[in-house]
Amino acid sequence: MANVDLTQVGKNFVKSAETGESVELRSLWQDQPVVLFFLRRFGCQVCRWMASEISKLEPDLTASGVALVGIGPEEVGLKEFKERGFFKGSIYVDEQKKSYKDLGFKRYTALSVVPAALGKKVRDITSKASAEGIQGNFSGDLMQSGGMLIVARGGEKVLLHFIQDSPGDNVPLEDISKSLGIAAKVTSGQRPVCNDDVCTR
Predict the structure, then answer these.
(1) Which GO terms describe its molecular function (predicted)?
(2) Is domain 6-180 in CATH 3.40.30.10, yes or no?
(3) Cα(40)–Cα(115) distance, rounded to whole angstroms?
(4) How far apart are CA 147 and CA 106, in angstroms?
(5) Is-above-0.70 flag for pTM?
(6) Greater model confidence, 113 or 172
């Protein structure tokens, strides 16, 4: 886990998908612990599946006083993402992608994305997402990767910092609960390792 400078990252502004207001990232962990799920794209089929998986934890997180926040790198696909209800937490947009950069979430090239798009794990997870009625599209920035940051209340410390290696990597629900020291009633479904919906058709 790479070192995270919460002071630096916390100064970055993100825009609320609900109000349009821009707030500093650190305001999200000022009064409670927070799980920050950084999506690759709002239209990505696998990102949508991951969002629905993480949302299974929302009741336990809320009961434990933990905020669940999703952050996307652009507004493309946001409207449909919200309307389809893939994510149960608050949603923000990091239009400058500054937090993505500060947290080490890499950008892919067309060449580095393609190999992962052809793997069996990609086919497996997109099949699972499709079976659950979760579809995706090709709109927006296809090359941005994401990850997760879990921060203790008041920014005391980083509880978990996860950087995607393959664009479909994610954190098992059990690891999220464990990092927060809470008991969760749900467990992860199949772990996705897709690289994008470039791989979904």
Answers:
(1) prostaglandin F synthase activity
(2) yes
(3) 18
(4) 10
(5) yes
(6) 172
